[in-house]
Design a protein that fits this description.
The protein is mainly alpha-helical and about 50 residues long. Helix content is about 75%, strand content about 0%.
Length: about 50
């Protein structure tokens, strides 16, 4: 199974380790899911940043 993450896909150059981890796991399944999950994670992280 592919273990490396495609940073080009996410567009964010390693903002948080959570992004990389989730993307790796999802990328193992499907690329489509990676985009969906990443969007959800980015929004959640953004909200956390804003507080």
């Amino acid at each position: 199974p592919r273990g490396h993450c495609e940073r080009c896909l996410c567009g964010y150059h390693g903002l948080d380790k959570y992004y990389i981890t989730y993307k790796c796991v999802t990328l193992n399944q499907q690329s489509v899911s990676t985009f969906e999950l990443f969007v959800s994670t980015s929004i959640f992280y953004l909200l956390a940043q804003l507080g």
